[in-house]
Structure formats: C-alpha cells, structure tokens
User: Fold these one by one.
Assistant:
Number 1:
Amino acid sequence: MKNAVLSAAILLSIGAATAAPAPVSDISGGSTDERVARLERILKAKQQSEFQTQQQLETLQQEVLDLRGLTEQQNYQIEQMLQRQRQLYDDIANLSVKPAQVAVASSTSTSGSASSTLSETASYERALNLVLKQKKYDEAIPAFSAFTKNYPNSTYSANANYWLGQLLYNKGEFNSAKEAFNTVVESFKESNKRGDSLVKLGMIAEKTGNAGSAKTYYQRVLKEYANSAAARIAKQQLNAL
C-alpha cells in the first residue's frame, strides 16, 4: 500500500513538472536581467537628455541677462546723450549776444583768428560736434581739453570734463580719464554728471585690477544716487565683481 501511494506521488510530481509553464520573459523576448538592463539604459539616456536641456536653458538665461544688461547700458548712454543735447540747445537758445560781439565775430577774416574769438558756448559746441556729428574722436580730445583749461568755471565744464574722460577711457588712457572724472566728482558736486563719473571711476578701477576701489565707487553711487540710471549700472557692475 505504501509503495502504491509512493508511486502515485512520484507520478503526480512528474506530471506537475511537465505541466509547469516556461520561465517568464519580457514582452521583447529578453530575460528579466536584460529587461532591467534596457530600462537602466533608457533611464540613463533620459537623464542625460534632461541634463543637456537644463544646461541649454541655463545658457539661454545667462544670454538673456547679458543682453538685458547691454540694452540697459545702451539706453542709459542714449539717455545721457539726449540730456546733454537738450541742455546745450537750451543754453544756446537763452544766450544773449550783443550786437558789438556779433560785429567782432563777423569781421574776423581768417580761420585761425576765428577760433581764437569763439565764445564759451560756441567753443563747447564745436568740441561736442566733433563727437556727435563728425565722429572725430581723436580731434575732440584736445578740443575738450582746451575748453576745460580756457573755461574752468564754465557751466559746461562738468560736461566737458566728463566727455574728455569718456573719450580717454575709450582709448584706454585710464590715468588721464581718471583725472577728468575726478574733476567732475570733486569740483562739480551738483552736476548731473557726477554719478556717471563715479561709475566710470569704478570701471577704471576694475580695468586696472583694483576691485576693492571699484566696489567703493559703485557703493557710493548706490548710496548717493539711488534709483538713478547711474545706480542701475553701478549695481550691475557690483554684482559682476
């Protein structure tokens, strides 16, 4: 009896083994390990793609910030130029010329003597036109330099020194440019060019490797000329230090 039962159990076991299903494989026909490996590769490729997309996004964001800063700086420069022109034209319009002065100017026969009799306003306008109209920047430097020496107390002196500093700065003559901007800061404290001159002094300090001095200049602008166009540029430069 025991042998019959044992035989029956063996037969059932063999039947069960024969009827058991084959090992499960994924829908692609691979084994579980192969499927896991494929999933890992897919996940890695997706992560790499997301990383590259993030890098591209960060690059684009930085480019937008750079363009925004450049646009703001250009708008600031245009605003300052228009303000200088308005001030110049207003002064010219309000200038009263005596008939005797007109007669003296009209009686001049040579270009050399004409230059020597130029009025204060006309001398400034001539130097300014070399920049704005004729684009003769190298000639404008001695013109503004002569004006600042001939008319040190002129109402145009602050602007003339600022223009002189800007032209020298553009040529990389930082020591001379610094002297001109310092004149505006120290001698014309009520000038609307004082904040701009402080910004330029900060930029000169940066270019000559003095980051600490540059920071001090920019902080002065933010403190003394808050919410101005000059302050916006100073903040931008300060953040970039």
Number 2:
Amino acid sequence: MQSGLDPVELDDQRVLQDVGIYRYHHPLEDAAAYKERLKALEAQMGDIIKIGRGVLAADMFTFSGSLAKGRKMTADLSKLMLRAYNAEADNCVRSLRSGNIVTAKKRLESAVTAIQRLGAMMEMRVNPDYHALRLQELELTADYQMKVQEERERAREEREQLREQRQAEQELAAERARLDKERAHYESALVTLRDKGDDTAADELAGRLAEIDAAIEANDYRIANIRAGYVYVISNIGALGPDMVKIGMTRRLEPLDRVRELGDASVPFPYDVHALYFSEDAVTLENELHKTFADRKVNLVNERREFFFATPAEVQAVLLEKAGGLLQFVEKPEALQYFQSRTRWPQWVNPPNETGIRGDRE
C-alpha cells in the first residue's frame, strides 16, 4: 500500500534515538486509566463504523451509466479500503515497541495517503475524524506500554527496597540480641569478680560493659531512626567505564554487604568503594547528592537509577561541603579483577580505560 510513497523508517532504535526521551501524549494516573480510555475510544470508533462513515466517498459516482450501481460499487470498495486501513492500523498497534510511536504514525499516515490516491476517482478517503481516533489509539497504546513498564520498574525497585529494609532490620535485631547476650555474660562475670575482691579486673570489665552499652544505644538508634544509614560512592570501570559512579544509601549493619550484592552475577566485576559515610539522615544526604549531579544522570528515562557521569573526586568535594570530614576516601579504583583480566582478553576487544569510554589495547 506504500508503493510510490516516501519510505518509512522501520529501525526502532534509530527512531528512538532521534526522538529522545519519551513524553506522554495523554498523561494519566496509571495503566488502568489508560485501559479505560482505550475502551472508551474503541466505542467511539465503533460508532463511526456502524453508521458507515469510516471511509468517505462521492455519492454521485455512476457505473455503466447507473447511479445505483455506482453507489453499490463505491460502498463495496469503501468497505474494502476500510478493512485495509484497519488492518494497517491494527498492525501498527501490535508492532508498537518501547513507546516508539513515530514509525507507527508514519505508517498509518502512509496508508491514508495510499487510499486517497487509489480512490481518487470516487473521491474516496479515510474519514479524518476516524483517522484522528486511530492516531489517538496509537498514542494511548504507546502511553499505556510506557506506563506499564514504569509501574513494573517501580514495583521491582520497591520490592528491592523492602528486601533491603527487612535485611537491615534483621541484622540490627540480631546485633541487639548478640549485644544483650554479651552484656549478660559480662555482668555475671563482673559480679563474680566483685565478690572475689578483684577490683582491677572488675574495673576493666566495667569498661567493656560501658562499651557494650554504647554499642546497644547506637544499635537502638539505628533501629528507631529509619533515615540513618550509610551513603556510598562506588564505581565499576570494567562494567561501566571510567568517570561513572553510583551514589546510593543503605541501612545495613555492614554496608559492604550491600556493595557486594550490587556486584553480583549481573556485572562481570565487583564494585570499588570510594566512600562510605554514616549519616543520621542518610536519605536527605543521598537526595542532595543526586540533585547536585542531576544534570549528569546516565539514565534520563528512569530517574530512580543512581548512576552519574562524575568522578569520585567530584563527589568527594560535594560530600565534604555537605557532610564535613570523611574518615576514609579512595579516589582511584583498585579494579583488581578488571585489570588482571584485560591483559588476557582477546586482541580484538577494545576495553575501557582511564581516559575514555573505549581505548586501544595496550
């Protein structure tokens, strides 16, 4: 049906790159709202088809000198053209991928042009009102797909946050139980030493008890204050290339456990830790860092992703400004497994290096 017309670009990735970030055509609250809107739209299109106004044509066309035959021929051909147009529209809806509506709209516009050209003798054309509804259907379907994808991603992240939260709570509860047990043991030993009159050993043990009490107080604070935790700055030059960091936070008792989980089988190399900073309000500190580097986000579609085009030193400067002194900071990544591996990679591999996304083999 597109013969003699301008070709339609069918490479979805190329079109998506040209279009940029997806913008909703009809912003609605959730995927269910889009389903309802599509259902109502389907009813509108059905009403137009029922009254025979999907395709418009001249009503004074004659065939073999007969106006009746001409109208019969026009009606039959109109049904055929409408069927062809709807088939193309349905195919456009089914082939929507990743919210790419540009190609689908071009294909449907091409179908309208082809029908108008083929039916010129009978002034045949797709009803503009009907075509507008089908274009709206494409927009709503694309919006619906993106909203579903967005909701799935949000649900996945919420499950991950909940799992992280539960893990932190379990670890803190287990640590409190361990400290209580240790405290009870030292209290019993302290009573025994006092009874024996060994005040020197008892005083040393009392000092240890004070340390345990301080640890219990700190642990209880972590349990009660859900905003307390560690802000971390990590990188993975082997997986992400240079000058890219992940800025996140964790409430885990041992924050390195969280870093090790992030460097599981989903990436080829473990993450390098540049900074771990405990904050009584780690949530706010993390948000402030994200805002500072907002214009350097790697993923501009899903803003909940925590990767940024920044060096560890740049993040350190902001941390020093917002949080004060850092007990420990590592500027250069160790990346031991990566550097040991790249020397034995095949010659045709072009690995990332410290000065660019991809560099020449040494």
